[in-house]
Each structure stands twice: as C-alpha cells, then as structure tokens.
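On clarity, I found the account of how folds are encoded harder to follow than it need be. Since the whole study asks how a given chain folds, the encoding of that fold should be made plain. For illustration, here is how one protein appears when written out as sequence plus structure tokens:
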Amino acid sequence: MVAGLRFGVRLGEIEMEQVRPAAGEAGPAPQEEADEREARGRELRAAQDLARRRRRQTILASAAAVIILALGGTATWVFRELATTRESMVAQLEYENSVLSRLLRQEYQQRFDSAKVSPARQEMVAQSVRKILSNRARYERITKSMTMPWYFLAIIHGLEADFSFDSHLHNGDPLTGRTVRVPAGRPARGTPPFSWEESAMDAIAINRYDKWNDWSIAGMLVVWERYNGLGYRHYGINSPYVWACTDLYAKGRYVADGRFEANAESRQCGAVAMLKGLIAIGSVSPPAGPK
C-alpha cells in the first residue's frame, strides 16, 4: 500500500513537471485557460448529447423493425390464409355453378324437345310469330353489334310489352316516363319520353345480355326464366313466361310482383311456344352452344 502511494505521488510529480512551463516560457493566462476548458466542456457535452440521440434513434428503429417484421409476418400469414380460403371458395362455387349450369341446360333442352304447342293456342302462337317477323328489321338494328339473336329480343318484347313500341322493354311501362314497376326508374339517364330503342338498349345493358354468349336453345331458356324470375320453381310449376301455350304449363302465375295465385292462368304466349313457331317455319335456327 505504501509503495502504491509513493508511486502515485511520484507520478503526480512527473505530470506536474511536464505541464510546468519551462524557464523563460510564459504560461497561459488564467482566464484563457478557463475559457478553453469551458469550450472543451461544451464540445464534449454536445458530442455526448448527439451520441445519446443517435443511440435512442437506433433503439427505436430496431424496435420498429421488429414490430414491422412481426406484423408483416402475421399479415402475410393472414393474407395467405384468406387467399387460400378464397381460392377454395371460388373453386367450389365454380364447380357448383358448372354443375348447376349443366343440369339446367340438360333440363331445359329435354323439356324443350318434349314440349308441344297446345292445339287451342296455336293461332295465338301464329299471331305472335307474325308480329315478330313484321318487326324483324327493327330488332336486328338493336342486336347487329351483339351476339344476341334478334328473335331473343323480339320474344322478350312480346312477353313484356305485347310487341308495343310505346312501352319499355324492361316491363311494359309507358315510354312517356321512367319505369315504375320492377325494375323501377329505368332508364336512369336521359329525359322522358324515351324512344323504344333507348329503352331496349338500357334493358339489355342492365341485364348484361350484351355480355352473354350462350344463345343455344337451353342458353336462351335459362336467360328468359331468369329475366322473369325463378319464383315459380318454389311452387313446383313451370314458368308461364317460358312455357305458356305448351303442354308443360296449365295454371298458376304471379298476378303482381310478389303475389302468386295458384289458380290464375297465363293468357300470353310463352317464350318456348314462340321460338318453336319460328323454328317450325324455318325463320330461325338457334346455335348448338355458346359462341
């Protein structure tokens, strides 16, 4: 311990000798030394503050990176699971739709092949066919830029408006205003009164008939029934919109939107009867499948 103290004293003496001015040299003034020490202190404190700030920034950046990576990993897993689930659901829906589509087409084609126009309604069918053919050019002007057959449009015109060119194709409401019944408020653009062509183009667009590509017999029957609604299937009867005037329909119809009467009978000519009438005289020849 004594040796240590002596060594410390001697070291201090040596340091004092090193900093003591040599003979003939003037030492710095006390005020200058104080100013210099203060300046060095400020520089040291500034460097320490900067180091602390950078250390805090590094720590925060590292923490943020960990959080982002954690969240990113979780989000990636969640999105991956959602994508997998969605792909599975889409695949299942596509399969179900394909099966439903095949079954519906088989059903429609078989029923169409077996259906016969009722003898008591043959004149009504013939009148409808004559009206369709007399206005063929007008229907063709609407469908000339589409894959839709002109006679598909003509048959809807007969079903919805009894071939009146003063009525909306959507539902037979007058062209002097927008539609009132379902679908109400059509056409949404333009100012009444509307031309029949304006109404027809709007009805085609909202039902996406300009995008449909299956104009086979079964494909048209699918669209005709959907146009009027599938509600008749709940009552176990064929839709009169499609099958009236044939031996596959007897009675039962909606007398108003949402109001079904089991004993009410449709008095209009159904789509199948009109199409069979056109085919019978060689005026039309529907394609075998989608175009």
In short: Residues 1-25 have pLDDT under 50 and may be disordered.
